[in-house]
């Protein structure tokens, strides 16, 4: 499951024939979720508990976003394994989907983890690829386009679209972000091909204009870098104050990555060379 698909889901409660209330979560691509598997980078792990009663707070990120969850005293076996995990390394997390109400009254989606293991970069890429394919298959069904071409698992009929056109674009964007992360060189070539075509955006015309954007983005990355690199989320927040759209920044970052002027020390961070 892609993290953005998970944390953007809506909570539903249904009553069974026996009178029990069953809680489930419906993702923006139409998946009905109870237990999920996510693969990403372990960004942070802190003990926020007290002496003798540790509570570990973890944050895991994939190409679409991040999710925060805790491991408390009711998971002693899992707690004992946490010291073996390393920050900025890929992990696989299996857990039950749950939610809580924040102080601001917002419902926040989280996980009750049952298993967390360290995996390789290739394994993380495989899980991210499978999750993006699964999400895309559900989107195709929502649009009535049938199954994905080629041999692929048959996904169940998804729920009705949630939130209309805006949510649909968000869902497609998260799949695009994942695939772009998994194969940067391919997307860089495609962006270059599109940029040279007749439909090129006027805002990107001219080498001088492109160079100006590149310099602006590099300046922002250096400004936001506190040693480990600039967080992509912080860069996006910074965009509005520098008269650039997110689409332009994504294209410029892809170009800078392709040129070798910036790199990703860990998932979700950018650092200038």
Q: What's the CATH architecture name of the largest domain?
A: Beta Barrel
Distance between the termini: 33 Å
Give the proportion of residues in helices.
25-40%
Low-confidence stretches: 197-206
At the fourth CATH level, what is the homologous superfamily of the largest domain?
Nucleic acid-binding proteins
What's the CATH class of the largest domain, please? Mainly Beta
Which whole number gives the mean pLDDT?
79
Q: How many distinct helices?
A: 8
Task: Using the CA coordinates, give the radius of gyration.
Answer: 20 Å
Structural summary, described in words:
A five-stranded antiparallel beta sheet has the order 6-5-4-7-8. A three-stranded antiparallel beta sheet has the order 1-2-3, with no helix packed on it. Strands 9-11-10 form a three-stranded antiparallel beta sheet. Helix 3 (121-142) runs antiparallel to helix 4. The chain folds into two domains: 1-182, Nucleic acid-binding proteins (OB fold (Dihydrolipoamide Acetyltransferase, E2P), Beta Barrel); 184-272, Winged helix-like DNA-binding domain superfamily/Winged helix DNA-binding domain (Arc Repressor Mutant, subunit A). The chain has 273 residues and is an alpha+beta fold. It is built from eight helices and eleven strands. It has helices at residues 3-7, 76-81, 121-142, 164-182, 184-195, 207-224, 232-239, 246-259; strands at 10-15, 21-26, 32-33, 35-47, 56-62, 65-71, 90-101, 107-118, 230-231, 262-263, 269-272. The two termini are 33 Å apart.
